[in-house]
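Narrative progress, year one. The postdoctoral researcher (J.K.) led the effort to move from monomer predictions toward full complexes, under supervision of the PI. The following entry was the first complex the group processed end to end, covering 426 residues in total.
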Amino acid sequence: MIEFHLNKRSGVAPYQQIVQQVRHALRLGFLDVDDQLPTVKEVVATVAINPNTVLKAYKELEHLGLVAARPGVGTFVIRTLSDDSLAAHGPLRHDLKRWLEKARQAGLDEESIEALFRDVLWSTSAQGVA
Amino acid sequence: MTAVLEASGLGKRYGHKWALSECTLVIPAGKVVGLVGPNGAGKTTLLELSVGLLRPDAGSIAVLGGQPGTSPSQLARVGFVAQETPTYAGMSTRDRLWLGARMNPSWDEALAEARIEQLGLDSRQKAGKLSGGQRAQLALTLAVAKRPELLLLDEPVARLDPLARREFLQGLMEVVAEHGASVILSSHLVADLERVCDYLVVLVDSRVRLAGDIDELLASHHLLTGPRHDRDALPHDQQVISESHTDKQSSLVVRADDPILDPSWSVEQLDLEDLVLAYMSHEVEADRRPKLEVRS
């Protein structure tokens, strides 16, 4: 089971944040096929949002073919977004951590690190390298 | 879908002063409605008219299709939590629940017990000894245990600290998710309502300035900034809500259902608080303009 956290100042609509967090969990393998999403009542009781917001997010996830509602039981994952590359996450995470240590030692702050990462990501994907 | 509240030309006067005037509203069922406006805008008056504590001096109001407060069955369908969540100070939680059960035909004993247990309230404690947050939760429990179709709450979180505020709204949303009642709650702070409401009514200076579905309101309002423009130069379907100008730049909040095409504007989305503030400042400006102007 996952728990949602909503960011008030992100500018992203709350229902979109829920959709993104589920997709994120599916991509990273925190959620797998047959796992249950928290019920609407459980979500609103923890994050104090309108129940319709949660329903809207779950409908969107259903529409994306990622989850399905089982009447009277709850909402379950039917497809995951992680693929064979999930096995490679561990070593890549390890390398990334080491790279981040180097960046911090070189005096880069969070903002500079993020800017550098995005810049390289964009320039490499633009070249068709990534 | 039927309306939970339908007002037509509704007005209430205290002496010479109209606390609410020309209020025409249709609020659909199944919504959590935020009633916002500055202090003294008429929020409490509208809620007290809806529950039947006040009688209109003009126009009419129907709640769940009936006239507020005119019959026991009508009273049973509406739950009300008044400002500052009053409870009888000398009465213990247990006695207060007993009273609730005796006075309400549709009392849900299991729901009341479950909520009191979940809140960790000592049922022998007198209400006067409860904290503000606990008292608010007790008042909410009493209002929801009668299983109303419509729940009205007047500034329920205004005096609560941030934690109690959050806990109260969590409890309220849990009840809505489980029992599906329509809710109207008032606040002078938009931030309190942003997440929990899906419908908004803005009252300013005894009048309804804006009412609608929050998603639709957010999608149809835009903040435009750009080189100085004259407001008359805008297309007719763009309604100016508020404007400010310097000698070189204009910033406008406009309402438009179609996308803004003029490339000289930089277009941004508004958050709910900015949107409400735009309507409140507009009212001030409208008052300064000649009275002959027709307001659309």
